[in-house]
Amino acid sequence: MPNFCAAPNCTRKSTQSDLAFFRFPRDPERCRIWVENCRRADLEAKTADQLNKHYRLCAKHFDPAMVCKTSPYRTVLKDTAIPTIFDLTSHLKNPYTRHRKQIKELTDEDIQRIKERRLASAEQTIKKEDLSNIADNEPQLSADEKEYRDYLRSLFEILFMLAKQAIPLTTGRVSEEELKSNNFQAVIDYCMNAGDEALRKRFEVTAVNSEYLSAAQLNQLLDVCENTVREEMLMEVRESRFYSLVTGDLVEFANSKHLPVFLRFVNQQNVLREEFVDFLPFVDGDEAALVESLEALLVDRWGLSMEDCRGQAHKATGTSTTKMKAVAVLLMEKYPLALHMPCSHMALNIHLANNLPFPNVQIVMENLRRITSFFKTPHTQDELDKAISIQFQKNEEKGNALKKMCSSGWTEQHNIFDVLLDILPSLLLCMDSIRDNADGKFSSCVTADAYSIGESIADFEVIVTVVILKNVLTFTRAFGRNLQGETLDVFSAANSLTAVLYSLNEVNDNIDVYHEFWYSEAVSLAALMQIPLSVPRLFLRKQRAADLGEIQAETYFKEYVTIPVIRGIMQEVEDMFCDNNLRALKCLSLVPAVMGHMKFNTTEENFAEVYSGDLPNPDTLPAELHCWRIKWKHRGKEVRLPTTIHETLQLPDVKFFPNVDAFLKVLSTMPVLKVEKGTGETATERLQAYLGSVPAKHLNKSLAMLHINTHVKHDLDVMVDKYCRLYPEDDPEAEAEDVGEDVIVTKVI
Predict the structure, then answer these.
(1) Where are the domains of the chain?
(2) Residue 512: in which H helix or E strand, if any?
(3) Long-range contacts of 186-192, Cβ-Cβ distance < 8 Å, separation of 24 or more
């Protein structure tokens, strides 16, 4: 079948000409340009695949320089070839001729778009020429230098592969006396066997059993990788200016504690990001020293300004909670706009309970963390399901509901204490069953953990504490759930705080009545679990030593559990949602959906003075806010109100409201607002995944950082340049600061 040329006013076909005919390209962008140049209106609706299959252009429509004759029988186009030679006027001489190939009349918009595309293409060509000239002016590398750089590039590739897959560097401690297998060396050997010439040339003359890389050299490589990836993220933070500081729970590397540090910011695409940037050594000492370390890290090492920090959140557990609260207070004293808020990654009720400094509460929270870890062991969840079935034989519906809740991360939910109280008898039964290990399916380590957890929860003080926490935190549960909801929910939570505090105060004022009911609930549960009522042994010993006489159990738990818990929760809520925090949260009414909910009767300017210094034109804010409300109030019926800050920032016309745009970006960084996951995991989830997949003794600080940030672009050539600049090959080997494990990579027979 002959090929016909698709160009207007061109009647050539393959059977009547020796010209080559070329298919339309499959690449959608190039294909669109071909169609645009052809001016065939009827081809615009067709896909690139359809055009490639059914339409051709003859060689007459291409610049001869774009056509290559590779043999007497084969003619091809260059990859960048675009048709530019067309006859678009000859049909005008005979206007009565019927044309199958209709020529599109260009509008002003079409002409402007074509001009912009050609201008962009010209700029790109000039840029390529400039880069080519720069490359020509660069000093030429010798053959040895090129080999060395290729070798470094291979090493960096191996390190990134190990980090991405969460593979530890070594499988055991490596020393000169006892050479053991390690993963880094194994991958180097594999790459050499697979044909990596750079590595093979480097190591083929290495003496047997000599070192591939010393610990200092490996730490230098890791340090360059880590700093390069971190700098990519910090550049985005500096461009966005405003950020919030978020710290995670303590992580232990090489017998020393470290504090994970995250930064939350809005990037140039107006997308909220929360990225992991480093581990800060956590030294037991005064809080002022830790604040100084944080400031030195952010300001001196990373080039950020603490004056631009607009929020802070600290996800601490155990004994570190008191210290991190003190750190937050000190930071707010120095930087009042670094508002201390709860972290969006943790349910508010869990955060409040973690912050209570009472030993009995901390024992309950530690047991919950141990239970979470324990039920990751195979078959343990099955045992809990069996225990729940036995316990709820007469109420199968509730039993099935509890099984479903226990299989989906209940220890991280807002109703954690409600679920714990419901399954406590079943949990004790499950631990007893695993400890007995009648069928031998559990290891001695698992049975020992079951025994320890069982003994801890079979204590009357623990039961009373769980009952008190459940009942007190009922008043904050809906409030906390709203804080982690959509923007309208967060705004509603800010306006409902007064009601929450009123309820807590009402409980505190009538503590005798409430305690009587709650203590009775604890006694009933203890009877069901066959646990005797008792006052803690340590307290009794102190009472007897002081000769203060006996104390009734109900009185003890009222004075030392119920009253401290209710007052501690009230204080935490008041501290965490102070006036400045509430003003910031109420400014969320800038989001159009919240405005609509409030019937556009909002007064953000009353709360905006907190951030007046962050706005480009604070004097015009009232007028701009008025225009912003009018814009959404009188919108068309088909226009949907954006429901989140992210949606609002993505609007093309938000740039015409510079104060609103800046205001929303600052508000977006507040740690209490949830981060949209998108398609991937959050930085916190990636950190937990790394810690859960790598044995504790093989954890490496640098590899953890690279694993968490595999999504960050990295240029291996930049790393090679940086390494060559910092550690010239002919210099004596420099001692590097240890990063994680002391690794020596050796060549073994």
Answers:
(1) 1-88, 141-219+712-724, 355-576, 588-667
(2) helix 511-528
(3) 187/158, 187/161, 187/162, 188/155, 188/158, 188/212, 188/745, 191/154, 191/158
pLDDT of residue 356: 92
Q: What is the DSSP string of 595-645?
A: HHHTTT---GGGTGGGGGGGSS-GGGHHHHHHHHHHHHHT--TTPPPP-SH
pLDDT (tens digit per residue) in 651-683 = 888 889 999 999 999 999 999 998 876 556 788
Segment holding 327, helix H or strand E: helix 320-334
List the beta bridge partners of residue 273. Answer: 265
CA distance 61 to 59: 5
What is the average per-residue pLDDT within 380-408? 91
Structure tokens at 742: 């002391």
Q: pTM for the whole thing?
A: 0.76
Q: Which of 215, 196, 205 lies closest to 153, judged by CA?
A: 196
> Whole-angstrom Cα distance, residue 51 to residue 23?
8
Confidence of residue 737 (pLDDT cuts 50, 70, 90): very low
Radius of gyration (Cα) for the chain, nearest Å?
34
Question: Cβ neighbours of residue 527 under 8 Å, at least 6 residues apart?
Answer: none
> Over the stretch 334-369, which tens digit does the pLDDT of each residue have?
999 999 999 988 999 999 999 999 999 999 999 999
Dihedral-angle region of residue 530 (phi above 0 means left; psi in -120 to 50 means alpha; beta otherwise) = left
Residue type, 371: I
The secondary structure element, H or E, covering residue 264 is: strand 256-266
Q: What is the pLDDT of residue 374?
A: 93
pLDDT of residue 171: 65
